[in-house]
Structure formats: structure tokens, C-alpha cells
Design brief:
about 290 residues; alpha+beta; SH3 type barrels; Alpha-Beta Plaits; 3 domains; 5-stranded antiparallel sheet; 8 strands
Length: about 290
């Protein structure tokens, strides 16, 4: 005789109840994620004044990094909760994972540092995809960012460089401001130079790609020249080409005004061969007496 299990027995069984609770918890986690994602992206879109709701188009990798961190935290919480529902001692599991994590942490110090610095970059809004940063001697456009690394494309060579986020202290965010110093000979009348430089700054300010240009005046008195500073404002990624354009404008105008850019000079003082150099103070005095 075959014993048939009734539907009531199935629904009332402990195994089914655990499965049902687990499925319900997972479904709730999915709904929480979808609600969070919609609210977060809507908030970012309003702040950035963007109509679309695609994370990769709103704030690039910053949004992806934040959403990725939230997703991972939600997954871990859901997994632990499902294990608890199914009778697993989560406390002991977390304790064991803590010991294993401490051991793994020693081996993953760089990874942890990168992640922490990545979170700091996101929190401080240090830079974002599309910004220009300088790392050591390389200036590049940020083309990708995550919690572990930043990838830039060099403005000069178009090479792509990956930077570990733990090296944040060596990174500088470039502004729109850039100074150009023009060396002029001491022989030139500074009043005339100021008038010419002011006119040059107006020509540069009217050029394509230049947001504005200011003539700042005398910058320094060097050994062979006086430096006059012109300050331009432009997009950092366009700076190399615009700098060359500005120098062409300066060079053409100085040539038209017959103003020469001096080269470095070195003054060398020599003594006539018939006059011996004094070796010390007594010999110097003796030499003076003989001449008298």
C-alpha cells in the first residue's frame, strides 16, 4: 500500500516553510535593491540635471562604485539571513569568517588600501570620469574608476595608465587655470612691454578654446631676463595644443614689435695676464705698495 503525502502535509512541513521563508526573503531583498536603485538614480539625475536614468551615463563610475558597494552589502546580508533561516549558526560562521578574514587581510593589505581610498575618493568627490588629473609627471583624462583603481588616458601620448587608488597622495586634479611666463630682455622698456603684453592677452582671449585670458604683469627678475606672466583659462585636456597656439601668438607679436626673447647669458670676469692674482691678503698689500 502506497502512502500518499497530502498537500497540507507538504505545506506544513519544516522544509517547505524554510524554503518559503528563504524565497520570500530573497524576493524582499530584490525589491529593496530595485527601489534603492530607482530612488538613487533619480536623485543623482536631478542633482546632475540629467533626464536619463542609466547609472553609467549619470555620474559614470562613481555611481557604479556606490551601487556596487550597496549591492554587495545587500547580497551578504541576504545570504546570512537565508542561512540563519535554514538553521545555520551564523554567529559561529561570522566568527570563523572573522578569523579567516584577519589572515586574508594580511595578504590583501594593498587591496584593502585601494578599496578604502576608493571610498574616500567617492565620498570627497575628488575627481570623476572625464576630469583631468596629474599622476607623477603624467596628465591624463579619467576614463574609468572603481573602488580599486583609476584608469587615465595621457593627454600627450594617448597611453592608458592604471593607477592604484592607494596612491591618491600622488594625484592632483587639474584646474582650468594655466600660466605662461614670457622672458623679455632687461634692455626693453617695461612700460612698452606691459602695453604689448596686455594687447597679446586680448588676442589670446579671443582665440577658439580659450575661456578667458589675463595679463598678470611682472612675475620675476631672473639672471638674464624679466618674466612677464599671462594666465589663461581652458579645458585641461586641451591645454597642450592651446599652449602651443598661445606661444605662436606671443612669438608672432613679439617679432612684429621687434622685441627679442633673450637667451641665457653668463658673465665671465678675467684678469690681465701681466697682473698676478693675489694668493692672500699680505700678498695683496705688497702688490699695492709696489704699484704705488
Amino acid at each position: 500500500m502506497v502512502n500518499l503525502i497530502s498537500i497540507t502535509d507538504v505545506f506544513s512541513s519544516t522544509v517547505f516553510q524554510r524554503i518559503a521563508k528563504s524565497a520570500g526573503f530573497i524576493l524582499a531583498a530584490v525589491l529593496v535593491w530595485l527601489i534603492f536603485k530607482k530612488i538613487y538614480l533619480n536623485t543623482i539625475a536631478k542633482r546632475e540635471k540629467v533626464d536619463n536614468l542609466k547609472g553609467e551615463e549619470v555620474t559614470g563610475s562613481f555611481t557604479s562604485a556606490v551601487m556596487g558597494a550597496v549591492k554587495i552589502a545587500l547580497i551578504i546580508f541576504t545570504v546570512l539571513s537565508v542561512l540563519e533561516i535554514n538553521g545555520v549558526n551564523v554567529t559561529s560562521l561570522i566568527t570563523g569568517l572573522g578569523i579567516a578574514g584577519a589572515v586574508a587581510g594580511l595578504a590583501l593589505q594593498d587591496f584593502i588600501k585601494d578599496t578604502i581610498m576608493g571610498l574616500r575618493i567617492v565620498a570627497d568627490k575628488f575627481y570623476r570620469v572625464g576630469d583631468v588629473i596629474k599622476y607623477n609627471d603624467v596628465e591624463g583624462i579619467v576614463i574609468e574608476f572603481n573602488l580599486r583603481s583609476t584608469r587615465i588616458r595621457s593627454i600627450d601620448t594617448q597611453d592608458e595608465i592604471t593607477i592604484s587608488n592607494r596612491n591618491i597622495d600622488a594625484i592632483t586634479k587639474r584646474s582650468h587655470l594655466y600660466d605662461i611666463d614670457i622672458p623679455i630682455s632687461y634692455d626693453e622698456d617695461f612700460r612698452r612691454i606691459n602695453a604689448v603684453m596686455y594687447s597679446i592677452s586680448k588676442d589670446i582671449g579671443a582665440a577658439d578654446g580659450i575661456e578667458s585670458c589675463q595679463y598678470k604683469g611682472t612675475q620675476s627678475f631672473d639672471s638674464s631676463n624679466i618674466k612677464y606672466r599671462i594666465r589663461i583659462f581652458c579645458m585641461p585636456e586641451e591645454r597642450p595644443e592651446l599652449r602651443r597656439m598661445c606661444l605662436r601668438i606671443v612669438q608672432n607679436r613679439l617679432d612684429a614689435e621687434d622685441i627679442h626673447i633673450p637667451f641665457d647669458q653668463l658673465d665671465v670676469h678675467t684678469y690681465p695676464a701681466e697682473i698676478p692674482l693675489p694668493a692672500n691678503e699680505s700678498e695683496d698689500r705688497e702688490l699695492v705698495k709696489n704699484e704705488q
